[in-house]
Each structure stands twice: as structure tokens, then as C-alpha cells.
Amino acid sequence: MSKKAMIKITLKEEVLDPQGKAVLSVLKSSGYNNIKDVRVGKYIELFIDSGTENPRGSLDEEVKEISEKVLSNPLIEEFKIEIK
Questions:
Q1: What are phi and psi of 59, to 5 degrees?
Q2: CATH architecture classification, 2-83
Q3: Residue 36 pLDDT more than 90?
Q4: Which of 9, 14, 63, 65 is an S-S bond match for 5, by CB 3.0 to 4.6 Å?
């Protein structure tokens, strides 16, 4: 049986987002003047074989560890995990 972990990674609120500002500029120049702000992030899906033994502990703990150590930069990014 396999499970899917969905991870949304975004910049922390206090971190400037130059990519988001660039997207906002394009939207405004395209006539979308009602858009107030844009923040750009990452969305990652992990497909996990839950039938194998996990020496690292629970699936939740493993996905959190992967998100902290591999997928994000905890100094400037935060993440949310959903497992189905």
C-alpha cells in the first residue's frame, strides 16, 4: 500500500519574495489591478511505500524530517504537510 505526502513550502512572511513581486508586476501590467500581492512557493508530492518497515519512526516524522533537511531551507521557508 502506498501513501501520498503533499508538502507546501512557502517563504516565511518576513522574507522578501522577489519572484512574487515579478509575478505581481506582470499581472498588474496585464490589467489585473485587483491583485494585491503574490507569494511564490513550492508544492511537492512524495509517494511512499507504507508497506515496508520504517527504521526512522512514524511516516509523519519521516516526512517532517525530509521536509526540514532536504526540501526546504528552515531559515527562510516554512512548510505544511498533508498525508493521504
A1: -60, -40
A2: 2-Layer Sandwich (3.30)
A3: yes
A4: 63
